[in-house]
Amino acid sequence: MRIFILGLLVFASTVLSPVSSAAKVTTRASDSLALLELYEHTNGPGWRFNAGWLSEAPIEQWFGVKTALIVNEGDTLKVVVELHNSSSDAGGTLPDLNLPNLERLELTFMRLTGDIPNFNLPRLKFLSLSGNKFDGTIPAFNLPELETLVLNHNPLRGTIPDFNLPNLRTLAITGGDLEGPIPNFKMPRLQGLLLSSNQLSGAIPHFDFPELTVLDLDHNWLSGSIPAFSFPLLERLNLNNNLLVGDIPQFDCPNLNRLSLNDNQLSGSLLESYAASLRSLSMHNNKLVFKHLERYTDIQAFNYHSQDTLLPVAALELAGDTVFVLGGVASDGNEYQWERLENKRWESVPAAVEKEFKPVRNGKYRCKVTNPLLPNLRLYSTESAIESITVDVAEYSLTGDLITALIVPSPLSDFASLQFGLRRPAQVKLTLYNLHGETVLTLVDDYYEGGDYSIPLDVRTLAPGRYSFLLRTERSSRELPVIVTR
């Protein structure tokens, strides 16, 4: 069979030159043998696209083969300069091709396995082997003319070689199992570096790529801080899904239009100014707070939701009482709501809407922080518990307008009495809330002179359960928890 195929190749190798009726054009024998070897090693009969292969037609008529004419010692030779194919029905291994004039090799999605050969192809400019099943390590290619290297979506192992490829413009090795650090490549003409979806670790190098336009390192295990990149032509920077920490630096990238930093552990921002060209900024799932984010709200596509920030809470003892003070927030536009854990659910504490909060019931508390400028983000504090509060039928000594406040009897049934004392005239409002922080009804909303009062309350319409009365004046408020029984 191999002798028969070689005979076909010899037959096809001698044709009249299209540029001279007198010169005889001969296909270089080594190129013909290299094509035969590729066909045999990669299940050529099973290729989806194999029209013309091993036929009597000239090799430039074989699918995916492009040739050129060269003159060698007075002889005109037809040589293979491009070879491409894509076939999910192929398989096998890729031989070390002896095609010294090859400039473009593109064999994608062909189920090729094993190692990638360390090609000796001195004129190769474009190499793409994406979508195969190569599972070895990457050779340290010595391809001086190479401009594009694409090895995406192969289960390649090991580390990335520190390539010596002075003319490389694009390096893309995504979707593999590569590990270890990223070399600090010396490739001055590089325009695109794409190494996403591997297992690369360590710090991001301080690259020196004056022509770089795309840097994509997302979905790795890169750690440390982000370098203050200075790339005059950079348009897209993607560092999503790594382990990066610290501040977002001030980049010197005047043409940057897309910046993606999602799913890291970034906790601050020094990015005081940014290129007018920036159209898309993604920063969700970091440890940022509103003061880091509100400066970017004018960016056309700004993604910031779901920060993993837990705001600190200090528990202070003031005049025998515990007061929770929220820290880590500094934006004037923030809104606060303290919550208490009730039956495994967080419920709003009525009127607890400041950074400082004095709990009146034992339990576990946290603070929810929102900001109208960033409506898709909620931040929460760490949880704080208190177990030292003692009460006597909801009676409390108060400061401000209120002197005392009392709901009797306890528990409630059909009727109750609100008893309170005022130091000075005030508008008094009594609102009833359920455990979800929802208003049930307002029982009192009137102006009272200073003094003591007892106001009857009809609670017959209330279902049995736990409630909170909130008694408020302009200067004072008090939560009065009660139980209604029947």
Structure description:
The protein contains three helices and 38 strands. The radius of gyration is 37 Å and the shape is elongated. The chain has three domains: 2-303, Leucine-rich repeat, LRR (right-handed beta-alpha superhelix); 310-386, Immunoglobulin-like (Sandwich); 396-484, Immunoglobulin-like, CATH 2.60.40. The chain is 6% helix and 39% strand. Mean pLDDT is 87; it is low at 1-22 and 390-399. The strands form seven sheets. Strands 1, 2, 3, 4, 5, 7, 9, 10, 12, 14, 16, 18, 20 and 21 form a 14-stranded mixed sheet that branches. Strands 22, 25, 26, 28, 29 and 30 form a six-stranded mixed sheet that branches. It has 486 residues and is mostly beta strands.
Q: Give the CATH superfamily of the largest domain.
A: Ribonuclease Inhibitor
Write down how many β-strands occur, each being a DSSP E stretch of 2 or more residues: 38
Compute the number of structural domains: 3
Low-confidence stretches: 1-22, 390-399
The end-to-end distance, rounded to whole angstroms, is 98 Å
Mean of pLDDT: 87
Sheet with most strands: 14 strands, mixed
Strand residues, percent: 35-45%
**In CATH, what is the class of the largest domain?**
Alpha Beta
Give me the CATH fold name of the largest domain. Leucine-rich repeat, LRR (right-handed beta-alpha superhelix)
Determine the oligomeric state from the structure: single chain
CATH architecture of the largest domain: Alpha-Beta Horseshoe
Radius of gyration: 37 Å
> What shape does the CA trace take?
elongated
Count of helical regions: 3
Helix content, binned percent: under 10%
Structure classification: mainly beta
